[in-house]
Records
---
Amino acid sequence: MSSNADIYHEMIVEYSRHPSNFGKIENPDVTYHDSNPLCGDSIDIFMNINDNKVSDIKFHGRGCAICMACSSVMTEIVKGKTIDDVKKIQKDDILGELGLQNLQAVRIKCALLSLKVLKYAIYTYLANHLNDTNADALKQEASALY
Ligand code: FES
């Protein structure tokens, strides 16, 4: 019988080979790009937002298996959610899906790169489209991820 660790490992390998929502959106409502300063790997996120909900999300770029798996999980969690619900997503929501809660510090940047990009993307959308003055808290939250 497989242990939880084996199952999570298989999930990470599978997501890295066949990432979910991988690609680009033409003329997205918002896009954001950032990179992992340790390795230079980078992620772009593209989102369309309708009726205050993320109607579509895709990510593109390159990263290690953990980065690709976490980016995939992040897009699966976000798709269809309201902006308010997306704002509430925390790092453990992503890490927990793949059993990565105790990840060593050096790999945490791999796991959280896409969440950081997501938070900045939502911040950018709120600041540009809705003139939301509370958006700055989201920017600070993204900066504090690592
Ligand atoms: Fe580059 Fe993990 S080694 S994102």
---
Amino acid sequence: EDMSLPKAERIKLDETDPKKVKLGNGTDVLGTRVRVFGRVHRERRQKEVMFITLRDGYGLMQVIFTGPLAKTYDALTLTRETSMEICGELREVPPGAHAPNNRELHADYFKIHKGWKAAGGDDAITNRVSKDTEHATLLDLRHLTLRGETASKVMIVRDAVEYAFNQVYKELRMRKVSPPALVQTQVEGGATLFKFDYYNEKAFLTQSSQLYLETCLPSMGDVYCIEKSFRAEKSLTRRHLAEYTHVEAELDFITFDDLLDHLELVICRVVEITMSDPTIAKHVMELNPEFKVPDRPFKRMKYSEAIKWLVEHGIPNEDGEEHKFGDDIAEAAERRMTDIINRPVFLTHFPVEIKAFYMQKDKDEPLVTESVDCLIPGVGEIVGGSMRMYDYDELMAAFEREKIDPAAYYWYTDQRKYGSSPHGGYGLGLERFLAWLCKQHTVRDCCLYPRYFGRCAP
Ligand code: 4AD
């Protein structure tokens, strides 16, 4: 009973007879009479017979209306997206015919309850979103495009991937924490900070939970979080959002090699767990038919080797010149390199000047850091990580070099005063991971309601 409606309009949905089933199920109840609920995904008529594909988020079911049922007013005026309650017998499809899960519902009763009808005419959903609708309009109508097959598959895979991360981290006995989103410190540079007024104090939306994760190590062991990060990115690229979901982890008493091994394991195990669910694997393979689980170990390449590789392959830097040591490897060059190598790459040992203040220097080569970007074909960087500077004086010098006032970071620098340790961690962009797994052109299609430069709605 829907308690939100006035008493007279509340709907009684009889759940006892016949049995209510979700649309993804049904193979176990073949030959019995069932009750289903869902929305009209597609409909077509063939002479006296009406075929309706019903959708409920768990699957699709073909429903057949014959005889008087197909001639009722509600059936004759049926619009897409209308919600329906239908009873009938579930049968295997006849040889040569096709339907989702090879079964169809032979309806003997249906009801479109009060308010369940979807708009028709000019307002019909098919007149608002179609294959020809512009991408910007589709984003304005995200609440409707989410009902489409591609968007809903990506969102369902996303749920499975997020769950898989939690599962892998539990297998590794790591603890989940939830750091604050409203902060007064920066992690990845002032240029992309969202600033706001916090009760008359200056504050930011967090760029990364890393610094907070580091403070958890002494009492909780290895930790992780799956939280939003915010970046005031001013460029419109296919892999930058203003608000994204950041999977971050921090590991205590490790070496840089341990960090790389861990990352490889997490990425592969997440794929393995995600693909072990047949429904999810089917969605992934429909979205990305060529997908295969990456081979381990990943290719490992130092930044200095990458610079050489880019020069040898004639791929220029952002100024159109030959790459030289110290250059940032820009998005376009990075992606071309990753696509040519065509397998995941750990790009390591970036120069100190182009990386964040907190990164540990390589002890044999102090010009470079113990840092890693994981690059994936089709997307480029999906992970950024490093060992953390754990010596107090060195960290204070790094703040000075970057002209950051360390006062607001007392809680972070204190970690180096009370039992420091060699530790490291990383952040993975969930939408980028999904763009790779689901072969989506842009990260904007890998989150529910994307936020990026110029868009904060719906
Ligand atoms: O390389 P980034 O900036 O690293 C950090 O924030 C570290 N503090 C994380 C850590 O070590 N705990 O970001 C990490 C990842 C990137 O590799 C990318 O996948 C994703 O976060 N990312 C974005 N995703 C979507 N839109 C953006 N604007 C992103 N910026 C970073």
